[in-house]
Design brief:
- The chain has about 750 residues and is of the alpha/beta class.
- About 40% of the residues lie in helices and about 10% in strands.
- It has a 10-stranded mixed beta sheet with strand order 1-2-10-3-9-8-4-7-5-6.
- The longest helix has about 35 residues, at about 270-300.
């Protein structure tokens, strides 16, 4: 059993499990013969968990009338039944002004201690949810039990979902888990460059012609925002079809687009639009199911009918939050928040449908100082907002990524109701949590029960994972390990309505993970393979790269040296590379009579190792790392440019964050290839700059072989290598064991 229950409760639970299984079997056998609801929205074939939210016999789709009508608790799934729908909306707004009870300090949103008004709003969210649980037993829905009077409205698509729920919640053993992990699924793509490959999936997701959502209002909102009821491109169509089937998705072709609307929302981002639509639809389905169950049970209670425990639906988790959105910085989160609000119908009903929009702009979208002496106020911004001014050589992708507030420590709770959206709410009263890995890890360290709000996460979105990896990928591992665990404390939870699979500790098998990154890395692949164990399966986008060698602006000698490694050498890969560098590369650097060698290192641990080596060998060098103070970094580049330091040691994270231009470089030595392929042509372009600074009359086109590039790689660097030289070349370079040197001009 999941909990240490008393003996009587354990026996009662065993009887309940047996009766529930029989009831499920009866519903499954009778579902095919019963007439389905004409207004029900058809589910995506193979979307087991999407239908699973109907919770053991509930209807799959909601009619438009059902979503608009209903009693007062429709404004929030866990709230009580009393009054009208309009009255409940008004009461919620009034409560935000008057409520004074304390919120849970350990898991509140990041700004719980800043002002009294925010604390009141957070208290309201916690109080609304807490008070509703007192009535949940009497209001508990029947829509999911074996004796549901609405059983005739079952959609035949639920049949497969019910069988899977029973199997996952009660019968999944180690052998079955192993079979799921080894099962393979393929997605044939004729004539396509990129395609998806899958593993341990039960069904191959089908490609949808248009988004399948639970409410007509959401479909109308999608059409209004995007200008079409369908998809913007085949790329968006395939991606949405994958995430709509609730499989784990690793998308390694995520690019940040700098287009923003007047409200700060992200524009022209097909991937983000698909994710936001999927998240809003998922939360809407979840809350509507709980609300309809509450209403059905309230009607039975009013009629004097006694509801047995076996008839109570399993439609909830231990806590309310079901979606976790991880982003690296505030500006990225702010764009996603505003885009989600743009697509959410509840945010466009009244003038006060969304609270604290001004605070969102200040905390997530405003500019955070400047790096220039002659700053000007932003064109449409208010006082106190400063735009960063970049040099001409700074690429556009860097400007788009660091536009706005780049703070990496934040967390925010968002609550979706029927007619409003509430921001900065307590985590236990939120539906969606936006946070950075650092901000969430610090919250988890407050107390032992701080991770309880992550116990019922059903969708995990990791956006711009390649940027998070430049921060600290270990935080993502910590969060994933703490997620979907049994809570340490029970907070306003009706245990009789919790999913059986959650009680049995299988909730991680029902969590969908959407991993979005500009490229794939071994760390991301390891996370996706080991910590994403979705029962529905997983798919990964396979991308064919053309390489970046064609983007070089100068002609120079590029020598790629393969460090011999085997697959079994992955543990000692760093030692093998270091020994090769000491034996083959360092002597060439020391024998070079001219200064101007830039040694590029992608890992900080390798940087420390190389720095200690250069110090030991008494090589004259300067340092530019992510931890170097700006003044010291500028001085180090000046000493290098003047020739007073022969070597400049540069880390990838320093180049990622600052994009500092290096002068007087005559040779670029890649101790390890960069994760970001666009860094390669940027660094090589510094060779032309050094030629111009030297005052030579030779043109850039005539500098062939004057400067050079040397790069070390191994078989374990296949992902990095293919992004630089191309997929076809990389496969030959890693497979060829006779020739360890490869020369490009």
């Amino acid at each position: 059993a999941a909990f240490a229950m008393p003996a009587n409760d354990r026996r009662k639970r065993q009887r309940t499990t047996t009766h529930s299984t029989r009831a499920v079997r009866d519903v499954v056998e009778g579902a095919a013969s019963e007439e389905s609801d004409e207004d029900a929205v058809p589910r995506v074939p193979g979307a087991a968990y999407g239908a699973l939210l109907a919770s053991l016999g509930a209807r799959v789709g909601d009619s438009d009338d059902d979503s608009d009508g209903g009693s007062s608790e429709d404004d929030d799934g866990r709230e009580g039944a009393g009054g009208s729908s309009d009255g409940d909306d008004a009461g919620e707004d009034e409560d935000e002004e008057s409520s004074s009870e304390e919120a849970d300090a350990a898991v509140a949103s990041e700004d719980e201690d800043e002002d009294g008004e925010d604390e009141k709003d957070e208290d309201d969210a916690a109080d609304d949810d807490g008070s509703s649980e007192e009535e949940s037993e009497s209001e508990g829905a029947i829509d999911g039990g074996g004796g549901d009077e609405d059983g005739g409205d079952e959609d035949t698509e639920v049949e497969g979902a019910l069988r899977r729920h029973v199997r996952l919640g009660e019968r999944l053993d180690d052998a079955a888990s192993e079979r799921l992990m080894t099962q393979k699924v393929t997605f044939p793509r004729d004539g396509a460059t990129n395609g998806y490959e899958g593993a341990n999936g039960l069904d191959v997701p089908s490609i949808l012609d248009a988004p399948v959502v639970s409410q007509a209002k959401l479909a109308e909102r999608w059409k209004t925002v995007t200008g079409s009821s369908g998809f913007a491109s085949a790329k968006q169509q395939e991606f949405y079809s994958m995430i709509a089937s609730y499989v784990d998705v690793q998308h390694g072709d995520r690019a940040l687009i700098g287009d923003q609307g007047a409200a700060g929302q992200q524009l022209n981002d097909e991937i983000l639009d698909a994710v936001c639509l999927h998240v809003v639809d998922h939360v809407t389905r979840t809350r509507n199911r709980v609300m309809k169950n509450n209403e059905a049970l309230a009607k039975k209670a009013k009629a004097g009918k006694k509801v047995m425990e076996d008839d109570l639906p399993r439609d909830q988790g231990f806590v309310r939050p079901t979606v976790l959105f991880l982003t690296p910085m505030r500006n990225v989160a702010g764009r996603a928040i505003m885009r989600l609000l743009d697509l959410c119908p509840a945010a466009h009903g009244r003038n006060d449908s969304v609270n604290k929009l001004e605070r969102i702009e200040e905390d997530f979208l405003a500019y955070e100082g400047s790096d220039s002496d002659d700053d000007n106020d932003s064109d449409g911004g208010g006082a106190g907002k400063k735009k960063k001014k970049y040099k001409g050589y700074v690429p556009e992708d860097h400007k788009a990524m660091f536009k706005g507030n780049t703070d990496d420590h934040f967390r925010l709770g968002m609550k979706l109701t029927k007619a409003s959206v509430r921001l900065y709410v307590d985590f236990f009263g939120a539906d969606i949590i936006f946070a950075s890995p650092l901000g969430l890890v610090t919250a988890l360290q407050d107390e032992k029960s701080a991770a309880d709000f992550l116990s019922a996460i059903e969708i995990l979105v990791i956006d711009h994972a390649h940027v998070i990896q430049m921060q600290n990928w270990a935080h993502v591992i910590t969060i994933a390990d703490a997620m979907n665990a049994l809570p340490k404390e029970m907070r306003d939870c009706d245990i009789q309505r919790v999913h059986e699979s959650h009680l049995n500790g299988f909730s991680k098998h029902l969590r969908q993970t959407i991993l979005l990154s500009a490229f794939q890395t071994p760390e991301q692949n390891a996370f996706f393979n080991r910590r994403c164990v979705n029962f529905e399966g997983k798919v990964r986008l396979k991308t064919v790269h053309k390489g970046v060698l064609g983007q070089l602006t100068i002609k120079t000698r590029q020598q790629f040296e393969r460090v011999h490694m085997k697959a079994a050498d992955v543990v000692n890969a760093d030692d093998i590379r270091f020994k090769y560098f000491v034996k083959n590369t360092l002597p060439r650097i020391r024998e070079n009579p001219e200064p101007g060698v830039v040694i590029f290192v992608s890992s900080y641990f390798d940087f420390v190792r190389v720095r200690n080596l250069l110090t030991k060998e008494e090589v004259s060098f300067s340092v530019n790392s992510e931890y170097t103070e700006p003044r010291e970094a500028a001085r180090a580049r000046t000493l290098f440019a003047d020739g007073r330091k022969r070597v400049l040691l540069l880390t990838e994270r320093a180049h990622f964050y600052f994009r500092r231009r290096i002068k007087a470089a005559r040779e670029i030595c890649f101790y390890s290839l960069p994760e970001h392929a666009n860094f390669y042509p940027e660094l090589v372009s510094y060779l032309a700059g050094s030629r111009a600074v030297a005052g030579s009359a030779v043109s850039v086109q005539e500098t062939t072989h004057v400067a050079g590039v040397s790069a070390l790689f191994s078989k374990l660097d296949a992902l990095k290598l293919e992004r630089i030289v191309g997929t076809a070349r990389a496969s030959k370079m890693t497979a060829n064991t006779e020739h360890p040197m490869f020369l490009f001009v």
